[in-house]
# Entry
Amino acid sequence: MVARAPGAETAGMTRTLTRTPVAIVGGGPAGLMLSHLLALAGIESVVVEIRTRREIEETHRAGILEQDSVRLLVDSGASDRVLTEGDEHEGIDLAFGGARHRIDFRALVGASCHLYPQTEVFKDLADLQLREGRDVRFGVSDVSVVDVESARPGVLFTDADGAEHELRCDFLVGADGSRSTCRRAVPEPERRQYFREYPFAWFGILCEAPASAPELIYNHSETGFALISQRTPTLQRMYFQCPPDADADEWSDARIWEELQSRLGANGHTLHQGPITSRAVLPFRSFVQEPMRHGRMVLAGDAAHTVPPTGAKGLNLALADVRVLAEELERAVRADDPALLDDYSTRALGRVWKAQHFSYWMTTMLHSLPDATPFDVRRQEGELASLVASTAGSTYLAEGYTGWPTG
Ligand code: PHB
# Structure
């Protein structure tokens, strides 16, 4: 039950106090999906999010859903659109050494993935929460988490109309993205952080053009990596490796196309061009914070881990986290016992590190490293050649790309 108590007087301002079993900081796909799964289990939650709905909808993120992510969206009743409007892909092309090589997921592992952008997943979940009348507050500010180590942690925030709130809960979930406030609330001696920076970034564009290939092309060339992805029959998503300090606004359209065409051209492919409608430089880093529980607070999705975008694991990992978390939270809420959430951290981290390795491996195998020696360059070509020539190697890629079973 969510109980609203009359306001408490703090520093001259009236704060509205709300009680909820589960407070979720972050209303992106991880937070909203968790709230939905908890609701299906009969557990109420309140979600607070600093961005407005519109801001989230206008942020372009990756577009590939693993098989189990699709299943979760469909089976939980969150999205049918993924099946009707998403595009099933049964493989990808790896392009290098002057040619393209298809990795056939269906033949290798009997699985597929769906091209369905993260923004659409978000819209489905936000619409659903609205339809079901669940408590989701977008556009809040001044969010802080308090008393994380107590039996009743809290979230303080100002709502979109400027009114101050205090949310008290039995369990607090930090699903507040890569700049997580919740993550920082874990005292330093209680947390381990693992980082890796990469000496490059991705230049991402959206362009109005027909698709250049039926599936995604992961393109390795001497001048750097490029990824040809899609959005709709008339809108395409493309990326190319660039220096981490590149300024997206400094690049003319002509220069962008020249870069993309020359990288794909090295492997015998030509892209359909069209007006570029959006551009941004995406940072590359790997990050994990362990454990994913501290007292009555747990972390989920990007708040606990970030992967580089190669292989599109970010959203999939977040959905896998909350699937496990919903199960574990249900037990913990019913027993009012935070120790039950240790299983969550252990179970989630198993997959997190597999995905960290997969994203790191795809990244380092396909990108040009600025300080690579001629030996490094030839070795990398040897790695790609042995991967596509080996059923075992290709199967490993297919398995990781379509996603390890969540059980
Ligand atoms: C995308 O479509 O945005 C996308 C697809 C695959 C990736 C990364 C991003 O590996």
Residues 32 and 365 are 34 Å apart (CA to CA). The first helix runs from residue 29 to 40. The longest strand covers residues 13-25. The chain has two domains: 3-79+118-194+286-358, 90-111+196-284+370-402.
